[in-house]
Amino acid sequence: xxxxxxxxxxxxxxxxxxxxxxxxxxxxxxxxxxxxxxxxxxxxxxxxxxxxxxxxxxxxxxxxxxxxxxxxxxxxxxxxxxxxxxxxxxxxxxxxxxxxxxxxxxxxxxxxxxxxxxxxxxxxxxxxxxxxxxxxxxxxxxxxxxxxxxxxxxxxxxxxxxxxxxxxxxxxxxxxxxxxxxxxxxxxxxxxxxxxxxxxxxxxxxxxxxxxxxxxxxxxxxxxxxxxxxxxxxxxxxxxxxxxxxxxxxxxxxxxxxxxxxxxxxxxxxxxxxxxxxxxxxxxxxxxxxxxxxxxxxxxxxxxxxxxx
Amino acid sequence: xxxxxxxxxxxxxxxxxxxxxxxxxxxxxxxxxxxxxxxxxxxxxxxxxxxxxxxxxxxxxxxxxxxxxxxxxxxxxxxxxxxxxxxxxxxxxxxxxxxxxxxxxxxxxxxxxxxxxxxxxxxxxxxxxxxxxxxxxxxxxxxxxxxxxxxxxxxxxxxxxxxxxxxxxxxxxxxxxxxxxxxxxxxxxxxxxxxxxxxxxxxxxxxxxxxxxxxxxxxxxxxxxxxxxxxxxxxxxxxxxxxxxxxxxxxxxxxxxxxxxxxxxxxxxxxxxxxxxxxxxxxxxxxxxxxxxxxxxxxxxxxxxxxxxxxxxxxxxxxxxxxxxxxxxxxxxxxxxxxxxxxxxxxxxxxxxxxxxxxxxxxxxxxxxxxxxxxxxxxxxxxxxxxxxxxxxxxxxxxxxxxxxxxxxxxxxxxxxxxxxxxxxxxxxxxxxxxxxxxxxxxxxxxxxxxxxxxxxxxxxxxxxxxxxxxxxxxxxxxxxxxxxxxxxxxxxxxxxxxxxxxxxxxxxxxxxxxxxxxxxxxxxxxxxxxxxxxxxxxxxxxxxxxxxxxx
Lengths: 309, 552
Hints:
Radius of gyration of chain A: 24 Å
CATH topology of the domain at 93-267 in chain A: MetI-like fold
Order of helices and strands of chain A: HHHHHHHHHHHHH
Strand content of chain B: 15-25%
CATH superfamily of the largest domain in chain B: Dipeptide-binding Protein, Domain 1
Distance between the termini of chain A: 16 Å
Helix content of chain A: over 70%
Largest sheet of chain A: none
Largest sheet of chain B: 11 strands, mixed
CATH topology of the largest domain in chain B: Dipeptide-binding Protein, domain 1
CATH class of the domain at 93-267 in chain A: Mainly Alpha
Number of strands of chain B: 21
Radius of gyration of chain B: 24 Å
CATH class of the largest domain in chain B: Alpha Beta
Oligomer: heterodimer
Number of helices of chain A: 13
CATH superfamily of the domain at 93-267 in chain A: MetI-like
Number of helices of chain B: 18
Structural class of chain B: alpha+beta
CATH architecture of the domain at 93-267 in chain A: Orthogonal Bundle
Largest interface: A-B, 48 and 50 residues
Number of domains of chain B: 2
Shape of chain A: flat
């Protein structure tokens, strides 16, 4: 087990290094730099500004300096927001994005999974049809429609909730709901199809034949075995949602990482682009590792630790 | 002479018609004050920096101007009035300014604001190691440009040029400034952020990071920052040490940093903010109909740049024909719908001419008319008899709904009015920074562009087209034009200088049509009716010094 984890961690570092290198190259390949502006400054002045941020060094030098910083967990200063560092952005933005993300995921699981189970048990009955219709809407209506709609109804018309910004629990409600909708719909659909698959298995029939109650059959035998796809989906979902989503954060003016990331690309804020890419990459790799380990516990058929041939 | 200059400054550029512009100097107690003197303003972005020397954008300026005060402040009519400087003398050749600072001006920690603070701050802004992108606002000072362009590694040279710079604190309350050339708008510039004083001790102690935390700001303006929640809000309270605190009615400022325009609008409409000037284009029509929109003049011109060295736009007759074949009224009235004016010259209205009460634009008049028949004739003269054979070309613009709508309209107009097959007028959209690079590399035939004045003088529009000018993307070069700009820059006689700029503009647009002007900008504001006494100038600045919240 320990050896397996070590192997995975090593592979993760290699993946991160490749990610950093590719991002570094692509980022410098797109036209425009952090100090490209509508008002041009004299060339001598631009040279001095670039020297201040070491942008006048040869690219390989910048690349090595950057890698050196990353090894020391120093992601460098932002070029756009002067006096602030990429570490500052992560320290400030990640807890916000993570809080919103966790609330949304809990919300989507708490509703999505039971709904999926009920749908499966009432397959093709009205409960199933209604929930699947809602799920289709949830999957297909994008958050940039849902979010302004919620804001219009609950903030502007009914005045029940503050329209935007971050800090109080009332400000969490709308973004959390808007963000939860897609995973909620996905959870319910995944759970439904996985349940349908499981309840047609022989061992379920056996369980029923043994005379177990319907509740016991559903809970102990069906749900436990049907939950695997949820776990698979959960890994990348956590990584994606906890590191921030641009649209929701933008619309609700939430000071999270997602917004910072998109800005950094628009601004060619090189260090921020790289730093947040690495952070996101590392988080995603970590989540995948966690999911793989959890698999092993949930399903004994999957062997994760070193197979000996 | 100094009186004459002040007279120019006095000329009311634009009546703000807020009904209260005249009250700007009146102390609190005018009208009924609401109990809660808190103004909530959405500035529209997280500031990139609050170090005045490094600021480049309007949101930053509008946060800074509440916290800081320069030698002068600017009122709602673009007129500078006494700030830290109580009075000033200007030499007869207009080259030497002596500012007399008020003795009761204080920093928020109680230190007096001295002439030495200004000298040090201006030298810092020009120091190449500071890396200020707006340092050119100090190039008017003798030796400013040379200092700013020195190699940042050459410390001896920096020191030498810094010592020689034309700014000297002769005592604690007297600042002597020597200029390179007569600059009638210099007084106005002293209200600009790059020329604010900064408190040396904090800047030196915290170096690059000094302007990031409220407790590290020692400022000298009417308000003092108390809180900065990044990407959310900056809170300020009235500064007790401000010399004119008795004339500052507001107790608190909440400056929101919301960049999504629709969210900002919802916040304003649901009563979370009182003031916002980032109005989504698609809502303008509705807001106007509902009477919620306040439209004010803004010092800017929207235009299409021609690359004058690339075929087919290397011929002034072709450029003129294309400029004449655009229906500007349709663009302003049908597409933009917010009171922008069709432009038939380059310098926008709102800049005073030499004679008191006269506007530069009104004196200069229009330099061309829309006339499709004349346009066709010009094209025929240029050898394009059969427009079906006109070479195909491309219009570039940066991605935005309104730029797109305008580009599509112009494509249609050129094709229909001049008879060019539509597929030959190509549109090409680019992401902002890509577009800037393309324009900068002169890698275009026609490019959408806009220019917002840095100060209230025609020069802020005119000098960009000098040969090899840093912002001259058109590659235009005309010795006659260059000479007129030079005359205007060097002349001590306001009449001569104004005339030179009129003549230069006639060449730029009337003769050479280097750019096709489309419209003159406006700025749109969402203002609650109880917000009074705002000083909004036409270069985008808003000052809350004398603002108040009326009982409502």
